[in-house]
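Exercise 7b. Backbone tokens:
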């Protein structure tokens, strides 16, 4: 006589499916609110990015100008203009492009009915700022060091190795960090949920293989 060990196989799957559905449903209104408040969302990121650039490159960075979600870096780097004259290089960046990790994080928290949002959201928002500013800074550096490198190198002193690092930093800032950092924060703060679902999922996968005579 065979006895099969049975477990509630639908539970882990239903928890995961429910989490993804809730997160997806929350993401739309959260994104709408985030975009509605975009002029305020970008303020701390813009300030931090400008402070980084002025601290790191005081010799040729004069400051920044923020117009809505567009931030311009004011430099003392001369490049040829379409008129044939030399003009100061002033690269412009859409700061909001690097801030979408915040609504993603909020939707993930709401998807698991996270407790303690009153402190988690402010702490995570501050924690995201350096990574968001990273993206803005490297978005400025690409036109300076890569696109106009032949005209700016005598002032910036960026060598070929540093130019390659700037290209890599830009790719990380626009493709990886805005999504990865919020997910890592969520996994750490909601690790009980993640571990529970992972363990139950592993048990579910191994249960059909466990039989006793």
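Sequence design result:
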């Amino acid at each position: 006589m065979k006895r099969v060990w049975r477990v509630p196989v639908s539970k882990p799957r239903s928890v995961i499916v429910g989490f993804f559905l809730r997160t997806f449903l929350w993401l739309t209104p959260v994104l709408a609110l985030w975009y509605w408040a975009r002029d305020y969302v970008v303020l701390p990121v813009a300030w931090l990015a400008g402070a980084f650039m002025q601290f790191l490159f005081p010799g040729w960075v004069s400051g920044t100008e923020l117009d809505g979600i567009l931030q311009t870096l004011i430099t003392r780097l001369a490049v040829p203009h379409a008129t044939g004259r030399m003009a100061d290089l002033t690269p412009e960046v859409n700061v909001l492009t690097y801030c979408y990790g915040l609504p993603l994080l909020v939707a993930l928290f709401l998807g698991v009915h996270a407790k303690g949002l009153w402190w988690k959201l402010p702490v995570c928002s501050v924690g995201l700022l350096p990574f968001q500013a990273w993206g803005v800074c490297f978005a400025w550096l690409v036109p300076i060091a890569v696109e106009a490198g032949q005209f700016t190198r005598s002032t910036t002193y960026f060598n070929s190795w540093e130019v390659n690092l700037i290209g890599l930093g830009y790719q990380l800032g626009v493709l990886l960090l805005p999504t990865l950092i919020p997910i890592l924060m969520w996994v750490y703060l909601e690790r009980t949920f993640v571990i529970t679902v992972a363990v139950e999922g592993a048990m579910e996968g191994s249960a059909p293989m466990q039989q006793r005579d």
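Instructor comment: Strands lie at 3-4, 61-67, 70-75, 78-80, 86-88, 92-94, 211-212. The chain has one domain: 8-194.
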